[in-house]
Amino acid sequence: MNSIKSLLISQIFKKVLFIFLSTIFILNIAFYLFSNNQFQKEIARQYDALYNMTAHLSTEENFDTLIIYLEHYTHNNDVTIHFKNITEQTIFSNDFDARLQKYEPVYYDDILLGYIAVNFESSKLGIDILYGFIGLNLTSIILFAFGMYILYKFLRNENTKLKLDLNNIESESSVFSYKEIKQLHLQLMNGQIQREKQRSVYESHIKSIAHDIKTPLSVIRIYADSLVNEKLNPTKDVFLDIQAETVKIMNLIPKFIELDYVELPYIQDVSLFINRYANKYKEIFESKHITISLELDRLSINISDKDLERLIEHLLFNAFYYSNPQSNISISVHNKNRKLVVEDEGIGMTIETIQNILKGPYRSVEAMKLNDKGSGLGLQFVKDIVQKLGANMQIDSVIGYGSKITIQFPQ
């Protein structure tokens, strides 16, 4: 099982190492190309100067001066030179290992004066370039090591913050370093509060029914005690009263049996449910290449889980069925004006279609072409729930551009 710390460190280190090595590789290539170009230019310049001076001194047969010049040149530039006259007699050479093989003729005004071979590989310029390569890589490695040390300390510190944040989830009065974990904490806390509210409403409902049953039971018990102790005569009226109280109990029993807590309304934040629902069916919408955009403020309304699910389900899937592929569906919840807005980029509706939908179950010809399985009841369910909540629903639509349904909840 992977830990967050190993994930942070190993994954980030791999990426940073890859970036570092790639950068060093590119820098080395760039440095090589640039330095090699400059090296070749400088070598060409020095060779031309050496060639011309050698030719000039040779044409005057001033070999002593030439030897002094070549000695001075090799000493200052750390190069290997071998110069021979036209009879191939060595005039000057510091090629003690006889490594120079390539000789070039030396001319002065088309007069052959001798042959020269030069090796610039061991020159000071070549050594400087080599040191430059080594310095570049050493500096890069030192900077990389220092950067890795700083990054490691930073990741270790962030890992500690992350662990503290995770440990503080669902703890009251917690302070978080990461806003995403804080949002998760708030969602879980709100969900817990909503479940407690739902349980409270359910328990209150049960207590109310139990209280309603207790009253007729008390009446029946009083009658029974009075009859047993012969304090009351068993008349028809007495039995009719007992029968009436029994009927009351019988009428209350189905409320226990059929009671479903998801149908009990309670004050809950609709944005939490919408976020869960949209993510739950994300893959279905992706099958049509439809994206869902969410802009959710916290908005509390008094609604049951069942009604809220029906409301969001019909609004969202109506938008899905009648939207074009590769389009967008936006769902927004606004706390300030207490509105829920679902907007799509679908086929749209005419004013006549909207009026018919508000009257009762209705489907236009265009809607049946796009989705032949619909019944036209979806918006009717939405309308019924909206009326139950005391809210208002407004439908705005343009053919070919899409539809927008706005639900205004009461204050």
Account of the 3D structure:
The protein is of the alpha+beta class and 411 residues long. It folds into three domains: 4-125, no CATH class; 179-263, Helix Hairpins, CATH 1.10.287; 266-408, Heat Shock Protein 90. The chain is built from eleven helices and eleven strands. It has a five-stranded mixed β-sheet with strand order 6-8-9-11-10. It has a four-stranded antiparallel β-sheet with strand order 2-1-4-3. The longest helix is centred in the N-terminal third of the chain and has 56 residues, at 4-59. It is elongated and about 160 Å long. The two termini are 49 Å apart. It is an enzyme of class 2 (transferase).
Strand content: 15-25%
CATH architecture of the largest domain: 2-Layer Sandwich
The biggest sheet, with number of strands, parallel, antiparallel or mixed sense and barrel status, is: 5 strands, mixed
Decide which structural class fits the backbone.
alpha+beta
| Number of beta-strand segments | 11
Summarize the helix and strand pattern as letters.
HHEEEEHHHEHHEEHEEHHHEE
Taken from the alpha-carbon principal axes, the silhouette is elongated
User: Tell me, what is the CATH class of the largest domain?
Assistant: Alpha Beta
Biggest sheet: strands side by side, in what order? Answer: 6-8-9-11-10
CATH topology of the largest domain: Heat Shock Protein 90
The helix fraction, in percent, is: 55-70%
Oligomer description:
single chain
Tell me the radius of gyration.
Answer: 46 Å
**Into how many domains do the coordinates divide?**
3
* Number of discrete helical segments: 11
CATH superfamily of the largest domain: Histidine kinase-like ATPase, C-terminal domain
Report the end-to-end length measured between terminal Cα atoms: 49 Å
Overall pLDDT level: 79
Low-confidence stretches: 367-372
Protein name: histidine kinase
Keywords: Cell membrane, Kinase, Membrane, Phosphoprotein, Transferase, Transmembrane, Transmembrane helix, Two-component regulatory system
Pfam families: HATPase_c, HisKA
Catalytic activity: ATP + protein L-histidine = ADP + protein N-phospho-L-histidine
